[in-house]
Structure formats: structure tokens, C-alpha cells
Design goal:
Length: 480
Amino acid sequence: MFVDRAAELAFLTNVLTRKHPGPGQLVMLYGRRRVGKTALLRHWAEQSSAPFTFWVAAREPAALQRRKLFTELLRTTGTNLPTPDFESWSDLWDSIAALIRDQRHLLILDELPYAAESDTAMLSSLQHAWDQHFQHSQTVIVICGSHVRTMELLFGRQSPLFGRMTGQWRLMPLPFGTLSQFLPRWSPEELVATYAIVSGVPAYLAWLDPEQTLVENIKQVMLAPGSLVLAEAMFLLQDEVREPRNYLAILQAIGGGAHSLSEIANASMISTVHLSSYLAQLQDLRLVERRLPATVPHMQQHRSRMGRYHLSDPFLRFHFRFLEPYAQEGLLSYQPERVLPAIQRDLRAFVGSTAWEELARQWVMAQRSTDVLGFTPEVAGSHWSRTVQIDVVAINWQTHDILLGECKWGADAVDRKVVRELIAKAPRVLADLPKGGASWRVHYALFARAGVTPAAEKELAEQGGIVVDLARLYHDLAEE
């Protein structure tokens, strides 16, 4: 199933009509594994009406890669010639340029880092071929890959392709509003929980059976012996690092609730001397992110000691919170029925502290084009200090407006006590702002799955605050 991707398709379609910087185009599309890069490029190519060649590199000898690429090109161009063996990538590019000539052609090179690993001269030969042939032709070359850090280095100053790219796009998971297209019969509550477990990664969503409930899917798809889900986290890690042992220990520590350097060092048994380099690598791989309070000004962020480390990927959060501990005990392989009750018991708290808070922040930023908040937020995040913690904080540094929001995923309506506690936190949050938050305007919001009681709504309204329940958030984000 192909869902959404309107912005990405518009970008790729524009590439076909672009006349500058030359007739030829060299574009990069990249993103984490299973995010839908191949499906997007195939859909775009098939809809373009232009002839195209789609080649996926594999971990195999460079000579075999070259032969397979040219064989595929011969097939898609309808050329009846034997496939020669190419001694170098330079010879291959020359032959490709001679075969395509001035014809319009899409040349899609998927998982290109595998080819670069097999032969370090591959990228420099492509750069030379681009300069000599392709930039002056009607060829559109699309480079694609799943190793995010490696792909980003392709347009860095040290890369042979630096300065040659005419466009690049990092493909992200699908937005929350698209999940209902995969799971049309599921309730908004189930969709929020699904977002907490697999986010908007199309391949993960495709694993789920829309005819069954979320709990049934956890039992029959995720916990089934031999399930792809159980092996996915290790596959992602082993595909990115050569020695995964220490990285795995760090991910386990963060997934288990350790977020500061000292906590992670203690849980992983890795000294803080070495821990920083491992964390930096995991951040480069987009597996871990360092979060700061939204109240830290941009100019102070690089030296702030308030950073906390979190798993970037929702699936990894779920895996290391619920699956990995039981995998170590062998229960997932031999007694998966004992794991499900533990997941059911703790899943609501997990969803509330992950997906519900993240969706609340997304909702806040989606209001930038409206007057719902009473100001235009520049950033949205959370706040923590020694004295106070706030789930949702949105700030406009220019107008000195700040939104303080609490998130509640409980099944009951939130009472007035929660509103009063939120309002009481404001002075402590303002104290952490520059100059003690003098002259700042405070706005309030409650993100409550089941809404609030009449008394709580009245208390909040007196402060000019707003209530966002699940129905409202679901409706608004579905239209995004």
C-alpha cells in the first residue's frame, strides 16, 4: 500500500521539469531502514512516464555490482546486447553515458553505500562521470541509501560528490494522521498506542493485521517465535556498527530509563570517559538524541549540562522497554504468553509518556498558522529542572510568550487539582528563563485523553487556557 508522501512526490516531480543548474540532475534521497524509500522511488518512477532503471546495490564484489547494474540498464532500455565485464566503475559510467546518450532517463541507484564499500573509487568515478557526461545530458540520477550518516557524508566537503548534488531529501516516517489508512477499523486510542510502538514507519505498519486488535497483534505478530519484530532491533544495530556489544548495552540502559550520563554509565557499566564517544556515534546514526529543556536559549544549548539522552526511534523504545528484558530471560522464545500480561499492564503509562506527549507537541506546532494559542510558537519541547517538570512547553523568544501544558493519558476526566498544580508550576518555570522570565506571558493547556471535569474546565478557562482531548487532537492531526 502506498500512502501519503505528497510533499516528497512534488519534490521528485519538480526534478523532472527543472532546467537549472543544468539539464542533468543528481538527487539524493535517504532515510532510516523500512521508512519507504524504495516504494516512494518506484511509485514516482512508474508515475513519471519517463524510462527508468532501478538498481539496488548489494554486499557483493564490485565487478558483480557493475555487471548487474549494466544488465538492468540493458533490460530497461530494451537493448539486446551481451553484458560485458567492466574493469572499473569509470568504464561502466562511460558505457552507461554512451548507451543513454541524450535520451531522458531516470537512473535510480538504491543502497549506494554498499557499492562505495566494495570499491572506494566508486564515488570519485561517479563524480568524474557526472562532470564529463551526465550533467550535460537528460539523465536524472537518484542516489538512495539507508545508512543516514553515510549518506549525509556524501554531500559533505570531504566527499567527491560535494557541490554536485542538485537536490536532497531525508525521508521521515509517515505522520500520525496517516495511520488510519493502514488500520481503518482501529480506534483513536489504539492508533495512538500504535504510534508509540512503531511510529509511522510503513514497513512496521504493514506487519500489523488490521482485522485484529492491537493486543492481538502484539500477541500474534510481535511476540510470535521467529517474528521479524523480535530480530529487528539487533538487525538495525548490526547493520550500522561492527561491534554492537557496547552500543547494545547503552541502548538497553536508555530504554530501561537511564537518561543522564551518570545513569547510563552506571546501567551499562561503561565508563563516562568512553561513553561520550559511543553516544556521539549513536546520535550520528539517529538512534539516540540528546534533549534539552525548551527553555534553554539557542545560544546556550551547546554548553548546557541539562541534556538527557533518549532513544530516537519509537520502535526501539518499545523493544528495549518491553521485549529486550524478556529476551534476555528466554521468555520470548519459550513462554511468550507470560510477556503479554506485563506489556498490557504497563503499556498505558508507556504510551502516555511517549506518543501522547509527542503528539501534543506536534499539535502545538500545528497551530502556528492559527490563533488558537494566542501566539505563534517557535519551538516546542518540555522542561525539567531540580524543582519542576512540564510535559509540553512552547516558546516564542521574540514575543516572550510561553505555553505550559500537562499530558494525561488516563481513562478518566482530569479534575481541577491538576489544573491548579499546573498553574502553580509557572513561577518555577519562569525562574529558569533568562532574567527570571520577567515580562513573559504564560499560556496553559491540558492534553487529556478523556477531557476534563466541568470544574477543571472552568478553572482553566479563567486563566485563558485550553483543553485538547483525544478527539480534538486526532481530528486536527488527521487533517495535517
